[in-house]
Amino acid sequence: MFTGIIEDIGTVQNIEQKRETIRLSIAAKKMNLCASQIGASIAVNGVCLTITAKEAAGFTADVMPETFRVTSLGQLVTGDLVNLERAVPVNGRFDGHFVLGHVDQTTSVLRRYQEQTALIMVFKMPPALQKQIVTKGSIAIDGISLTIIHADKREFKVGLIPHSQQEATLAGKRIGAVVNLETDVLAKYIERQMQTSKF
């Protein structure tokens, strides 16, 4: 489990791709991986991956076909920057919101504009997720825990404070860029319950 509070911005060092499987090698700038074991979970742009090898300043992880098809990881190229977060330890403090690292699907940036110190980013509303993306609700975009400012049938928007603009990659996304979405897990269960309940 993750919180959506990004720990580091990593750099893609190497990509080995065979059809819809990828092996990613990523260098971390400031995140200490000494305590992370082989087999530990790490979120890369909001996607929960397993560390399969590590060095002092980086790690390797495999991307399976389902992840390749659902997320934006298949679009990465060497040199790209990615958001990184290690799994929350049992005794750790919880910030952000409950993020599983299970991306629902991708969407794209429609517009972006400055509102005083906040960067407002507007995204295309995926029809399949419309009931789970609600105004003032939580969402993870490329692994970043954000509050939805507004949502309707066509689009939804979030705001980035200066800290979020500097400490994660989302502020660098331009119009048309593809991002990973994970809706609030509570919204998923509520929608499922509504679908299966008999009234």
From TrEMBL:
Catalyses which reaction(s): 2 6,7-dimethyl-8-(1-D-ribityl)lumazine + H(+) = 5-amino-6-(D-ribitylamino)uracil + riboflavin
EC number(s) recorded for this UniProt protein: 2.5.1.9
Domain Lumazine-binding, residue spans: 1-97, 98-194
Annotated metabolic or biological route of this protein: Cofactor biosynthesis; riboflavin biosynthesis; riboflavin from 2-hydroxy-3-oxobutyl phosphate and 5-amino-6-(D-ribitylamino)uracil: step 2/2
Signal peptide limits: none
UniProt-recorded Gene Ontology molecular function terms: riboflavin synthase activity
Any GO BP: riboflavin biosynthetic process
Ranges occupied by Lumazine-binding repeats: 1-97, 98-194
Cited InterPro entries: ATP_synth_asu-like_sf, Lumazine-bd, Lumazine-bd_dom, Riboflavin_synthase-like_b-brl
Role according to the record: Catalyzes the dismutation of two molecules of 6,7-dimethyl-8-ribityllumazine, resulting in the formation of riboflavin and 5-amino-6-(D-ribitylamino)uracil.
Quaternary structure, from the entry: Homotrimer.
Protein name (Swiss-Prot/TrEMBL): Riboflavin synthase
